[in-house]
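User: Sequence recovery, please. Input:
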């Protein structure tokens, strides 16, 4: 069955842009509302192993839409292009939102808006 997923990335947890939120509380809030079928945090999606993770996750037809909460969505599209191509995943089925410099509540709101706009 095709599913919707939410991936969150926080620059290894060391970037100041992500220090005002509790990323686990953010993911829990989205889970509790059943807004997506799965939620995961990756420490550095734009790294080589992040690419491998994305390709592995998106191969096959388990996920039909992937929401990514991390840095600038325009940067995300460029950084994840190779991984998506390797997985055969249509980039039009990715949605991104920038949650940098937000607190927990703001990040939950931003992600909720992105997911419910679909
Ligand atoms: S994908 Fe964005 S948020 Fe994640 S490690 Fe790379 S630059 Fe940071």
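Assistant: Recovered sequence (118 residues):
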């Amino acid at each position: 069955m095709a599913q919707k997923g939410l991936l969150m990335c926080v620059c290894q947890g060391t970037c100041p842009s992500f220090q005002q939120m509790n990323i686990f509380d953010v993911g829990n809030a989205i889970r509790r509302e059943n807004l997506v079928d799965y939620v995961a945090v990756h420490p550095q999606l734009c790294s080589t192993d992040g690419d491998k993770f994305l390709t592995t996750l998106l191969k096959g037809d388990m996920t039909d839409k992937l929401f990514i909460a991390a840095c600038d969505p325009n940067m995300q599209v460029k950084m994840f292009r190779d991984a998506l191509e390797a997985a055969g995943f249509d980039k039009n089925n990715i949605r991104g939102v920038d949650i940098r410099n937000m607190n927990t509540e703001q990040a939950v709101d931003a992600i909720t808006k992105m997911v419910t706009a679909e």
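Helices lie at 23-32, 48-58, 73-79, 81-87, 104-116.
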